[in-house]
Amino acid sequence: MISPTAIVVLFFSLILGAVYQPLDSNSLFATQEALERDVVSKNILLVTAHPDDESLFFAPTILALQQKSANKSITFSHLCLSYGNAEGLGETRKLELSRSLDILGVSARWVIDHPQLQDNQIAEWDASVIADILKPYVLDLKIDTILTFDSSGISDHPNHKSIPAGALTLIKNLGGTSSEPPLRLFTLISSSLPYKYTSVFSVALDKIEIYIYRGMQKLENLIIRILSIWYPDILTPIHPRNPDANATPIFISGYLEYKTALESMKAHESQLLWFRYLYVAFSKYMWVNTYVEVKP
Fold first, then answer.
1. Residues 6+ positions from 289 with CB-CB distance below 8 Å
2. How far apart (Å, rounded) are the C-alpha atoms in residues 158 and 235?
3. Signal peptide location in the record (predicted)?
């Protein structure tokens, strides 16, 4: 029986491990090579609603995919759908976004100012307008994977919540025939309020889940290989494949990545209100991004 002390030691060891070693389990998009049952994404587009979304919610994703982009294994681009002009600071926030993306290392980026997609705390955006805006980027860049908010928008912001509906509208309009592999949508999972503010502790929780999943996958493969010796006509050995092929896509930052995310948020000087200092100190999204695929 595992003692409570051992569990505590394991938990804090994983937390300390995050200081030195980031971890990503993202074979559902951005694998280096195609393995059995994998669908490989090569051209990925992150879509956000406002300047500072990239720092507050998607930094672990951006930093992990930028590293793969630098190795030429994928292309990674970012599109922001507004200047964030709710308080008349649109031009200022546009410049702040540029500085933030410089810190995060994103060179392929665009920010647009559309009359029907203005920063608004109470109004949702039209899905068809979002789809029309996304379409030329998807086709010109040969995008096969879109990353964005889920239908809860992480912070329940109506602009955030509108984007996945727009992306799904585009996928339906394209009919799955305009890209190979077909265009897919992955959304950042909105966590419950207590879990949302677990900060670095979320690293330990998610790493434990990943290690358990990988262990179960290896055990499953071993059992099937052993049974196939006696029952070759019923069971055949599984071909080698990525152990995370069917796992939830997840990016986990280390301390250096978290530090970079903080620096990128500091670029948004106009948004550095007291509650955002609390957010960057306690939010799990500064450390962990977990996605789910959404299909039409």
1. 57, 58, 60, 61, 188, 250, 251
2. 50
3. 1-20
Taking the domains of the chain in order of start, what are their residue ranges?
20-189+198-294
DSSP class per residue in 228-267: HHH-TTT--PPPP--TTTTSPPEEE--HHHHHHHHHHHHT
As given in the structure block, the two tokens for residue 1 are 């029986």
Which CATH superfamily does the domain covering 20-189+198-294 fall into? LmbE-like (3.40.50.10320)
Query: Do the Cβ atoms of 101 and 78 come closer than 8 Å?
Result: yes
d(CA 16, CA 34): 33
- What is residue 215's predicted lDDT score, i.e. its pLDDT? 65
Give Cα separations from 213 to 126, 149, 207 (angstroms).
Answer: 39, 25, 10
**If you write DSSP's letter for every residue of 88-107 in order, what string do you get?**
S-HHHHHHHHHHHHHHHT--
DSSP strands (E only) in the chain: 23-25, 43-48, 75-80, 109-111, 145-149, 184-188, 250-252, 288-294
Q: What pLDDT digit, counting tens, does each position of 141-193 carry? A: 999 999 999 999 999 999 999 999 999 999 999 875 444 568 999 999 998 78
Neighbours of 187 (CB within 10 A): 22
Tell me: the pLDDT tens digits for 37-50?
Answer: 445 678 999 999 99
Q: How would you class 93 by CB atoms within 10 Å of its CB: exposed for 0-12, middle for 13-18, buried for 19 or more?
A: buried
